[in-house]
Design a protein that fits this description.
The protein is an alpha+beta fold and 489 residues long. The chain is built from 15 helices and 20 strands. The chain starts with a strand and ends with a helix.
Length: 489
């Protein structure tokens, strides 16, 4: 039996993103999509609705698939371009380094470029990996242009993402979904009724006394996970032992200076501080462990950026994920499925991963179990890979025994021979892991056999040539703010 009636519970970013993607994907089919507001008035905001303004390049694709013009999307969300994330004071190196969006150097002898960097480091030649990346260099220079479509050009070797206002993005997606036929139910969730076996949602009762039922339910209720977690009792795997931050304070501060095309994140004793530029402002976010820093002190630290009277937003979260993001006739999207602090900018990407996989595996009533098994396998792998990447940033030393086995293996292999291990359904690529390992100060004990095919003088000559090429290309790009103003005019 075909699914005709979908009920989305939660009117935040995850809820309206899901509604927009489903209405667009299912256009032409007789499917009703209703969005029920989940949180009672005055309740705490979903952390994802606030903390996912710094994105990854992949987020451009779903907006393009919706048919949204990039200029219109950027105007509506206050977006600016992003080429990289700068990390300061992380790892044993305690220096500033870039995680850029794009290729690093060039493949020599069919080997990843980081293997040659490892080789030179083992020879006592410490090398700044940023100088071999167009987006890293351009970010530091405050320059930007869209990548070239000519694959022969070095300006085709990078990608870009956005800094945006998540609340404005929610409003845009809400309007888009409503135009496509989604229905907003202006009442809050009061109670969830399950079937007798407890494995499916039967109906919802709203605060106005209305009863709502559907063939399929999408839980976008944030971290409380009212349907999947509370009603269906799907366990939550807590990652606090590896990712201790559980509070955040955020404040938007108006600025007149040009917006740099990168997020800057600085490690602190109790967590980290992020500076994300949007058009005409900077979002300051302090993420911390409540056991080691009081909320009042954190609030004052952030408020000091804007002067007297500033009122930062306070947020509470727990890193982790539901063991099954899909059970019975209910899928959780966004923080209802899992939450990962925005240290590595995965917020919007994981929302999109959830809804994209649901569209690809959309069931009829007889195939829910089959589709759910594959959905749970792939989305859980995506969350776990992103978790490993985030945990990596917290490692100043060899605490491998306490780590998830998957991350311990990655670290061991990189430390031995610079090997980057990628699993299925990964968000981050080889260059991301290699840049992060090197930026944190990790130095392999050996390097790949194929990296020994060239003499050291040949490697140095190639490095110098590549660095000159990258530097020249980055310097020719226009200033980011001027390009942005022209593009959106």
């Amino acid at each position: 039996m075909a699914i005709r009636n979908i009920v989305i519970v939660g009117g935040g970013l995850a809820g309206w993103f899901s509604a927009a993607r489903l209405c667009h994907a299912m256009r032409g089919r007789k499917i009703q999509v209703r969005v029920v507001h989940a949180a009672p008035p005055g309740s705490e905001a979903d952390p994802l609705d606030v903390l996912c303004g710094s994105t990854l390049p992949s987020i451009a694709l779903p907006f393009a698939e919706l048919g949204l013009d990039e200029r219109d999307f950027m105007r509506a969300t206050g977006a600016a371009f992003k080429l990289a994330t700068e990390y300061r004071e992380f790892g044993v190196a305690r220096r500033a380094w870039m995680l850029p969006f794009g290729e690093i150097g060039a493949r020599l002898e069919a080997v990843g470029f980081h293997q040659f960097i490892s080789r030179l480091m083992l020879a006592g030649r410490d090398t700044d990996i940023d100088q071999f990346s167009v987006p890293a260099l351009a970010a530091r220079l405050g320059r930007f242009a869209h990548p070239s479509q000519d694959e022969r050009s070095v300006l085709s070797t990078y990608e870009y993402a956005y800094h945006l206002d998540p609340q404005a993005c929610t409003r845009m997606l809400r309007g888009f979904a409503l135009k496509l036929g989604a229905v907003a139910v202006d009442a809050e969730l009061a109670e969830v009724a399950c079937t007798e076996d407890g494995n499916r949602i039967a109906s919802l009762e709203l605060t106005d006394g209305t009863k709502v039922s559907g063939d399929f339910y999408i839980d976008c209720t944030g971290m409380r996970s009212a349907l999947l977690g509370q009603a269906l009792r799907v366990p939550f795997d807590d990652w606090s032992q590896w990712l201790p931050c559980d509070r955040a304070v955020q404040l938007r501060v108006p600025v007149s200076a040009p917006a740099p095309p990168f997020t800057s994140i600085t490690a602190l004793e109790n967590g980290w501080w992020s500076r994300m530029p949007v058009r005409g402002a900077v979002d300051h976010t302090l993420a911390f462990d409540a056991r080691t820093l009081e909320m009042e002190i954190a609030r004052d630290m952030v408020a000091a950026q804007a002067g007297a009277g500033a009122k930062p937003r306070e947020l509470t979260f727990t890193n982790g994920r539901r063991r099954e993001p899909w059970r019975g006739n209910c899928v959780a999207i966004g923080a209802a499925a899992g939450f990962l602090e925005p240290l590595v900018a995965t917020g919007l990407r994981l929302i999109d991963d959830g809804i994209s996989r649901l569209v690809a595996l959309f069931p009829d009533d007889g195939s829910m179990q089959l589709m759910a098994r594959e959905y749970n396998r792939t989305l859980s792998a995506s969350y776990d890979g992103a978790r490993d990447f985030a945990i990596l940033h917290y490692l100043p030393g060899p605490r491998i025994a306490a780590l998830p086995a998957s991350l311990a293996q990655r670290i061991e292999l990189f430390r031995y021979r610079g090997r980057v291990v990628l699993h299925d359904d990964e968000i981050f690529e080889e260059a991301d892991w290699a840049c992060t390992f090197i930026g944190l100060g990790e130095r392999p004990g050996h390097y790949a056999i194929l990296a020994a095919q060239m003499s050291e003088d040949e490697v140095l000559a190639q490095f110098a040539k590549i660095a000159r090429l990258m530097q020249s290309a980055a310097q020719k790009l226009p200033p980011h703010q001027a390009y942005l103003d022209r593009y959106l005019a």
